[in-house]
Amino acid sequence: MTDAVLLMAYGSPDSLDQVEAYYTDIRRGNPPTPELLEELVGRYRAIGGGSPLSRVVEAQRAALEAELTARGQDVRVYAGLRHIEPKIGRIVEGMAADGVTRFAAIALAPQKSSNAAGYGRAVEAALDGLGEAAPAVVVVDSWHDQPRFIEALVATTKEALARFHDPARVRVMFTAHSLPARVIAEGDPYADQLAETAALVAAQLGLTEYEFAFQSAGRTGEAWLGPDILDEIRRLAGTGVTDLVVRPVGFVADHLEVLYDIDIEAQAVARELGVRLERARSMNDDPIFIAGLADAALAALPRAQREPARAS
User: Fold this and answer.
1) How far apart are CA 15 and CA 76, in angstroms?
2) Extended beta strands in 108-255, E state
3) For residue 278, which phi and psi values (nearest 5 degrees)?
4) Strand bridging mode 243-248 / 276-279
5) CA separation, residue 142 to residues 79, 83, 113, 187, 193 (Å)
6) Max CA distance (Å), the chain
7) How far apart are CA 126 and CA 235, in angstroms?
8) Rounded to an integer, what distance in angstroms lies between the CA atom of residue 75 and that of residue 101?
9) Is it true that the peptide bond before 32 is cis, omega within 30 degrees of 0?
10) Which residues of 132-152 are buried (b: 16+ CB within 10 A; e: fewer)?
11) Distance between terminal CA atoms of the chain?
């Protein structure tokens, strides 16, 4: 039996000339208006002309494979993206061609959501096309309370708090990508799992008070989950908070929603209000985080089934 792990990420354009195709893909084939396209291009331009996400995911892939090898596990690690090459379907086909007989597919989105379900669907579509040659698979679509993931969040939050003269005075705000508010009525576990992740981190930090905010809401004309990070920064400033650490718990890599939405947009609001904002660094290929991914993968592999992908 040949085992493997497939890391799955949303994907993001590496350069400005990829933005239009990427934006069209996330809009299910509908091209953006010139105004929307120019706005998004401007955001990518502001963070250096493209997203580092593809490079980060490749670093995560290599680090996870090295971690598994160090544990004596002969497990190859692959990486696929939803909205930009290399896409998940093509990677799954390549895994089958490489002789992989079972694999754990891990969405690099810790909390389960209807949006993250797209990763499993991409795997299923590829497996359906492979017929009898399809390897066995288990899709890990939720690992929001994985112990080493929590440990890594705690450690990096402590690092950010240590940048302040008096860490005890600093307010901590956890954040995650917003989703349309209707998902809650539809029974989506996303918000609950985010709250659980934040509570676990806060408990280990000994926080008696902390904030949670959503960020990066889409422009769809419907209500999105809140409160919004910018509104919360303004509210906290109004109550006298001057020192703030933002700790994303729904993102595990540097990309636009971190580098622009927090480091530029939220930072500008905080600065204008006299609030010192420090962001805890992203997980990226942090060794503790990677060890947590290895734990999750090895726990999942025995549950792989020779059928269309099923959520773990």
Assistant:
1) 29
2) 136-140, 171-177, 211-215, 243-248
3) -120, 130
4) parallel
5) 17, 20, 9, 15, 9
6) 63
7) 47
8) 11
9) no
10) eebbbbbbbbbbbebebbbbb
11) 21
pLDDT tens string for the chain (312 positions)?
799 999 999 999 999 999 999 999 999 999 999 999 999 999 999 999 999 999 999 999 999 999 999 999 999 999 999 999 999 999 999 999 999 999 999 999 999 998 888 999 999 999 999 999 999 999 999 999 999 999 999 999 999 999 999 999 999 999 999 999 998 889 999 999 999 999 999 999 999 999 999 999 988 889 999 999 999 999 999 999 999 999 999 999 999 999 999 999 999 999 999 999 999 999 999 999 999 999 999 999 999 987 554 445
Is the CB of residue 244 less than 8 Å from the CB of residue 164?
no
Residue 209 in tokens:
């008070």
Domains and CATH numbers, the chain: 3-143+286-303 (3.40.50.1400), 147-279 (3.40.50.1400)
**What pTM value is reported for the model?**
0.95
Lookup result for tokens 């379907």: 89
Report the alpha-carbon distance of residue 108 to residue 237 in Å, rounded: 33
